[in-house]
Amino acid sequence: MWAILTLLVENKPGILFKVTHLFRSRNFNIDSISVGVTDNPEYSRMTITTFGDEKQVEQIVKQLDKMIDTIEVKHLDEHKTVYRELSIFKIKLSNASDSMEINKLANAYGGKIHDVRKGSIMVELTATPDQIRAFEELAKPFGIIEVARTGVAALERGGYEN
Amino acid sequence: METMTGARALMVAMEKEGVKEVFGLPGGANLPMYDEFARCNIRHILVRHEQSAAHMADGFGRVSRKPGVCFATSGPGATNILTGLATAQADSSPMIAVTGQVPVAMIGKDAFQESDIIGMANPVLKYSFQPRSANEIPLVVKKAFYISETGRPGPVLIDIPKDVQQKEASMIFPDEFKILGYHPWTDPDIVHIERAIEMLLSSERPIILAGGGAIISSAFAEVQSIAELLMIPVVTTFKGKGAFPENHPLSLGPIGMHGHAEANKMMTEADCVLAIGTRFSDRSVGTFEAFEKRLKIIHMDVDPAEIGKNQTTSVAIIGDVRASLRIMIKMLMQKAIKRTEENIWIKHVKETKAYWKENLKLHPGEMGAAKILRKLRELLPHESIVTTEVGQHQMWASLFYDVIQPGTFFSSTGLGTMGWGFPAAIGAKVARPNVPVVDIAGDGSFSMTENSLATAVLEDIPVIVFLLNNFSLGMVAQWQRTFYNRRMIGVDQGKCPDYVKLAESYGAQGIRAQSMDELDKAIKTALKSDVATVIDIPIDPEEDVLPFVAPGTSLADMILPS
How far B304 CA sits from the closest chain A CA (Å)? Predict the structure, then answer.
């Protein structure tokens, strides 16, 4: 099972180290991790995606929750969550028509074109990891030179309803 | 508000926490802190190796249930305490380690005696602090003690750069503070306790499994009340040994790899277990799958992460186990539930217990392990504290030394740290100077921290080392005999050193006991002595610890003496 975890942590040096260390020492997997400060500069939010069966994910959540530096840990329900990852693809331009083709493809996925050169083009795509993978498959025949991905950032839908 | 140095603030803050003793060893990076011993009411107890300081603090903490404190300098001083921190973490022992660090500006420069102890120790700590300015120290100390001793206890490291120790600042010693992400206590869920009672009442063969958590939370009276009210037999884990008086008619002793035969047997026959403060470690339960299908598990623990970690449970009760048991007892009282008649299960349990008391084959010689440890039990007052090292002697202690007064037996059960018992005994004696403290030791383990004899003698801490000497690394030898076709590699320690002479060279008392008579006299002499004593007891190097549940097998498949 693929799981999205969201962690509210104290914004102090060394916390990222402790979180990743926990995954290593407890034999859990990190699929992706992203960290950024929240509206309150005292806290950071980490979004971690991981693989494991239900029992493992439950253990990961409990172990993270036990950490003194984590203020809140949640296993997010994919269907009630907005989650996105930013990716940048550098793709080869071999034929004259490639630029046009890639442009179309990027548009179809809601991507943006950056830095068109003689031999390469850069596409920025903010989407779900699934959509990014799909785009990657379609871009492969052109020749992908480099990819950079940020990892998922996620927030639960809805909010305070009082 | 008062102006003082960071080092002074550390000492004042520790005094406020009630610290009276610190175990440690000075060096360049913690000298400003050491200088403060000259003008505070904290006694410094000098060790010969920092690992022993950590074990002493650990032993002190387990006995007093308040964090023991150890000091070490930066670099190698700090790395030397790592084993002690890991031991305390594995056994949930409250401890504060204070290390010196190179000055802030030198951190990360590979300075002399610099080690990233915060990074290295992270996985074996409950928490760590590295104050970067002197005025942080009072709050850091307050938080460190609170974190170490609340909830599931554990070691906390305070790593203080030398310049932070030296700098003066206006200090505020706070009484109140918040730690947002730390919730050590959960109120037990009443509904779950009710369900647990129903489960226990409707089961035919219930059993109580008391773990280390029962000892940490001092739930002795509560465990006994539940057992007696519902007439349920009690087994313990090895860490839980002594959570329940082992001379009680309902006591079966520890289960596990070297559990009591009757305990392992009854554990495998039970249909419902009330597990109190245990993590179902592999050494305790073997492969649980063999019988867990028909076993309903009620799991009480203070640590929510233990629920479901190693074992799927039917009912989980999260919270301090003593508090949970008290609620359970109250409910039973309200329902006027008290069993007085022995049912078939209890009769069967008692018969099984009696059978093994009669029929467990023991070493035929005069100086067999069982006879030696039963002699010790006979002569030691019930309130005496016993620690052990790690190895065969430890398992023999589990099998043959009955703990009668709960909470008087301590061992490195989780990490299995050889060399723990002796310094831990010294720490225990400091915490409770008026009772005899005995380290049940083996020669392999004792060799690892024997230089703590210097501490015992110079600091006037008269503990007894009860050394079952088989001149070898006995447990490894047993595995080589059992699993490696008697190919004995790296286990022979020879008759080196002579432990009587070794003790004497430190100014301690050394006595060799080669017969039961000599042993009797030696124990009596040691108990009367006001100096640390090593009783060297040569035993048969071929004696195995039995019963034995081979690793990766079920408790039902235990190997018995033939």
Answer: 7
Domain spanning B2-171: which superfamily?
Thiamin diphosphate (ThDP)-binding fold, Pyr/PP domains (3.40.50.970)
Angle at which helix A129-139 crosses helix A98-108, to 10 degrees, equals 160
Q: Residue B365: pLDDT above 60?
A: yes
CA distance A162 to chain B (A): 24
Q: What is the ipTM of this complex?
A: 0.91
pTM equals 0.96
Of the candidate CATH numbers 3.90.1150.190, 3.30.70.1150, 3.30.1300.10, 3.40.50.1950, the domain formed by A82-152 belongs to 3.30.70.1150
Backbone angles phi, psi at B284, to 5 degrees: -85, -45
Residue at B551: amino acid letter: P
Active site residues of B: 50, 112-113, 162, 475
* Chain A / chain B CB contacts < 8 angstroms: 36
Is A2-76 in CATH node 3.30.70.260? yes
Mode of pairing for the β-strands spanning A120-127 and A112-114: antiparallel
Set of chain B residues whose Cβ sits within 8 Å of the Cβ of A55 = 308
Contact call for A25 and B123, based on CB within 8 A: yes
- The answer to whether B230 touches B203, Cβ cutoff 8 Å, is no
Enumerate the residues of chain B whose CB falls inside 8 A of the CB of residue A65.
304-305
Backbone angles phi, psi at B101, to 5 degrees: -135, 160
Average pLDDT over residues B24-39: 98
Tens of pLDDT, residues B47-84: 999 999 999 999 999 999 999 999 999 999 999 999 99
